[in-house]
Amino acid sequence: MYNFSFTLPAKLVRSLRFTVLTLLGTTGALMFALAGASTATAATTVVVNVGGADDVFTPATVDINVGDTVMWVWQSDGHS
User: Whole-model pTM above 0.85?
Assistant: First the structure.
């Protein structure tokens, strides 16, 4: 039976430890950033018509998210 043992130089151990921790930290940060990005929704444009014969908003209610655009469109035949 043979028994071999060796010791890595301290400088090499520190270098390997730093490299492994840097890779783990970078990978963790990237995974965290990508997880947040996957839940984001695409921005949309919501059109709300204003005016008409009854001076109402159509639709009366809308659901919007941060980053969405609301376009207000005036509906009128003109002024008397």
Answer: no
